[in-house]
Amino acid sequence: MTPPPSRRRRTGAPERSYPRRGSVRRAQMITTYGVGSMVAVDNESFIVSGIDSWNISEAPTVYEHRLAHVLGVKSFRLPPASDDTSKDGVHVRRFPLWHSCPNCNALQHVRGFNCSPGKNECGDCDEELVPARFVMACAKGHIDDFPYWKWAHRNNRQEGDSGFCGGEMRLRTNGKTASLRSILISCTCGIPEVSMEGAFRSTALSDLKVFCSGRRPWLGGAPAEHCSEKPRTLQRGSSVAWQPIVKTALSIPPWSDGHAARLELHWDTLREMNRDGIEIYLKALTLQENYEFSTDKVMALLEAENHEETGPDEDRGTDQAYVALRKQEYERLIAGRLESETDHEDQFVCEPPRSSAAVLTPYGVTGPMLVKRLREVRALKSFSRVDTPETRTDVHEAALSLTPMDWLPAMEVQGEGVFLRLDEQRVDSWAQSVAVAARVERIRNNHERMMRQRAQDPQFVPDSPASARMVLLHTLAHALINEWSLDGGYPAASLRERLYANDSMAGMLICTATSDSAGSLGGLVAQGEPDRLASSMHSALIRAQWCSADPLCVESEGSGVGGINLAACHACVLLPETSCEHNNGLLDRALLIGTPEDPSIGFFNEGLLP
Hints:
By secondary structure, the chain is an alpha+beta fold. The protein has helices at residues 28-31, 65-71, 148-152, 204-207, 258-262, 267-270, 275-289, 295-307, 318-335, 424-431, 434-454, 468-487, 530-544, 590-593; strands at residues 38-41, 44-48, 61-62, 75-77, 92-94, 98-100, 106-109, 130-131, 134-137, 143-145, 169-173, 183-187, 194-195, 232-235, 243-250, 349-351, 365-384, 407-422, 495-502, 505-512.
């Protein structure tokens, strides 16, 4: 056989001039490739710049009054889209800066390769350079290149030596295994070749006296901050190298109608006026926009704003403000809003089913609602590194810009959903069982232990949100999404849960999660009709009785990250990450159907299952 040709750069390929443009969807700028994340474009790697460098002149504005009030901004903007003729777009910076050549194995700063202008290739071999695979980051969001020279010379440095040996470094893989032991670094100064094994230990860098540099390369011109955090080695594509902190809200009355959306730019002016002044102002605005504004509706909106308590203040933290947001949505979903009471611009229609819901009484479901029209806004507030919001509630939030901005990047999803409530008295009675309480306590202890291990100060760890009510609702939502993905034609990743679970709420909303074609199939509302919903719940519970990983799954003492799940795995109730609010944590299907040893643990065990 003829041996394959050696890997060389293609000749005759058209040269590309900077700035090069990659292509990601707008939604990915919120969830996957937001500010501070690393994105691969061809064979290069870049970090997304802060929002103060974005050109948003053509980016549509997104309004969601309640969420903007909590986050302290005036509005939201869709991430800018660009084409070959537009100047609009998101800026990126090259990162990491250390590269290697796959032909000569040279490992150094990209400036050392003498690249031709507009190209990213080795000046000696004309081979495309490969961005370094490893970076170092800390829990405060700082990120920098991995200290390859110090790692390679760690056993050959004299005390007090802080300079470089003058040799040229090399990186190669011996191909024996896929582990870090096969990634070898050497230097022409003559030191023994070392591997990357052990680089991911929590103290690997601090043992080398490598401290956090405080660099924020996604913010142009940002000075390095003093940081006392210990840096950690991460792979460039690691999931903990960038974790978005996304805040969401539903558009509910009175902010969901056409008046609120059309007046967003005028609220600052309207707040300063009395009723007569507002009436005159609206008449002029009606002539300008050819839209009939109602003074009574505007006065009702202003009154509702004055009575809202969603904003954080000195006595209430931001967390309480988000709870208030959920409480408002919960009450509105219960109250509903008939389609006959809305116009075509209204973004919230929620009606009770046409048939009787008595068939759902044995399942403890009360007041199902069909959300025929729904709008959800998801805003990127900040991001974290190393620690994630699911593993630590006090995670440090890295800023999206060097200077404060009055807007945040966001996306909106319009679709439909089904809202369910469980009988609170029945849930409370079930939760008082000794066996149920013991099982939930095990989940809570595992979660709090994980948070203590990852907390900066283990003495000040917040309480785990795990409760019998919360774990029950969460696991039931996962079971229904899996069932509807099979019965309703939706892929599981296109459905999303929204939980309302605390001492005063016991409900869930399952709605469309994507803005693409998979989120507009229709038919999700039909799953909420009582007869069909009862059939779906019965089928989901039967399916939850058996997992292909049983008995290991149902007898698990802790699964998932940090052991914060019990009977839950990818073969039964876990979902795609886009569908779950808690990153597939705090789940236990035994609370639905019980265990073989004690079926009474299950909330739905009384005569509903064979």
